[in-house]
Specification:
- The chain is mostly helical.
- The chain has one domain: Arc Repressor Mutant, subunit A.
- It is 49% helix and 5% strand.
- The protein has a 3-stranded antiparallel sheet.
- The longest helix is centred in the middle third of the chain and has 24 residues.
- The chain is globular, with a radius of gyration of 18 Å.
Length: 184
């Protein structure tokens, strides 16, 4: 993916969360998205239409109750990758890249703050792992692929109908050469 407009579309926090919910839960209606994200239904519909406009989601007619029922699914359940160098070469790409990077940086701060918060999390479980591992570039790539396989297996499993409350959990990780202290 290297279209700056698509990058701007997914940089929006609500749209990013909608994509995450569709990945975790499968096909959803605007009402489902509104309930899960605590948004007005018209706002959820707007963001779903924007994601569809940029080809990130599509209607799922097999999940619809009838022809008027609009149910949405991700176009690519395996996700997509962003080639920032390609995006930045497109007209408007550098600006879109700045917006995307700033949004992701802010999101990272929010995620870490949420994990480290002293506030009770209503019975929710959270963990922060900070591990250094000595690897070659190829080994780092292999480790990343193995973690993605585990996450894919968990994401694609048949969810039991056991009436237990489930919520969408975020697994957030980065693998990179250890940054210098002054790079922050």
């Amino acid at each position: 993916m290297h279209d700056p407009q698509i990058l701007r579309a997914i940089a929006h926090p609500v749209r990013n969360r909608i994509l995450a919910e569709l990945d975790a839960r499968g096909s959803l209606r605007a009402a489902d998205v509104a309930r899960e994200l605590d948004l007005p239904a018209n706002q959820a519909s707007f963001h779903l239409r924007q994601l569809a406009k940029y080809g990130l989601i599509e209607e799922d007619p097999d999940a619809a109750r009838d022809k008027r029922d609009r149910v949405w699914r991700t176009v690519n359940p395996e996700g997509f990758s962003v080639e920032m160098s390609e995006v930045e070469q497109q007209p408007g790409g550098k600006a879109a890249s700045r917006v995307f990077r700033r949004t992701k940086r802010d999101w990272g701060h929010l995620v870490v703050d949420a994990v480290l918060s002293d506030e009770p999390r209503k019975g929710r479980w959270s963990s922060l792992t900070d591990t250094a591992v000595l690897l070659t570039r190829a080994e780092a790539q292999q480790l990343s692929e193995e973690i993605e396989e585990v996450l894919s297996r968990w994401g694609n499993r048949a969810v039991p109908d056991d009436q237990e409350e489930r919520m969408t959990y975020l697994y957030w990780a980065a693998i990179l050469p250890y940054p210098a202290v002054d790079e922050g």
